[in-house]
Amino acid sequence: MPETSGAELRWSIRASFLRYVAALPDARASVSDGARLTRDDPQLVVYPADPDATTDSTLAFRGDLRLSGHGGLLFVRLAGPRIELGIDGGTAVLSVEDPTSEDGTGPRLPLVTVTLTRTEDGWSGSDAALTADGVALFNHVYPAGAPFDPLEIVTTATAAHVVL
């Protein structure tokens, strides 16, 4: 199993969506379980590594981001992201915990596909696209294949053992 104790997922999900939510008069955003929003870029969410759930083919992260507005009609929960590494080494799937399950025991929701590229500090994820399964989480506002923001996985030397 690869050691990932110092890694973190840095992702703005879809910055335009986060700005939209922030502009709502009753907007609410919360982070817990280690996830945090950065001061430099309020649209950037940081999820710390979850070494206990990381395997040779999965990079796991902890944290829970919740966004709401429109009197509760808008609610998006992105918790416990995991990146399932593709067999071909480039395309991966980022999934989140079942957004309707508070304890994370429901089925995982494949949210976006992403192309991962190795960098000096970890990985860069480009060409992020919403999956058909992820469309309902955003109330069908974005169609399957809609572009989402690139992501980055920054590591200390610890996550370098995962080979894509």
Task: Give an account of the 3D structure.
InterPro entries: Htaa (IPR007331). Residues 7-153 form the Htaa domain. This is HtaA domain-containing protein. 5% of the residues lie in helices and 38% in strands. It starts with 7 loop residues before the first strand and ends in a 10-residue tail after the last strand. The protein is mostly beta strands and 164 residues long. The protein has one helix and twelve strands. A nine-stranded antiparallel β-sheet has the order 3-4-1-12-11-10-9-8-5, with no helix packed on it. It has a three-stranded antiparallel β-sheet with strand order 2-6-7, covered by helices on one side. The longest helix has 9 residues, at 15-23. It has one helix at 15-23, and strands at residues 8-11, 28-32, 36-37, 45-48, 58-60, 64-69, 74-79, 82-84, 91-96, 109-119, 122-130, 151-154. The protein has one domain.
Topology:
Layout: E1 8-11, H1 15-23, E2 28-32, E3 36-37, E4 45-48, E5 58-60, E6 64-69, E7 74-79, E8 82-84, E9 91-96, E10 109-119, E11 122-130, E12 151-154
Antiparallel strand pairs: 1-4, 1-12, 2-6, 3-4, 5-8, 6-7, 8-9, 9-10, 10-11, 11-12
Number of domains: 1
Strand content: 35-45%
In terms of quaternary structure, the protein is single chain
Distance between the termini: 14 Å
Task: Summarize the helix and strand pattern as letters.
Answer: EHEEEEEEEEEEE
Q: What is the strand arrangement across the widest sheet? A: 3-4-1-12-11-10-9-8-5
Number of strands: 12
Helical percentage: under 10%
List low-pLDDT spans: 157-164
Largest sheet: 9 strands, antiparallel
Query: From the helix content, strand content and strand pairing, which structural class follows?
Result: mainly beta
Mean pLDDT: 87
Bulk shape: globular
Number of helices: 1
What is the CA-atom radius of gyration, in angstroms? 15 Å
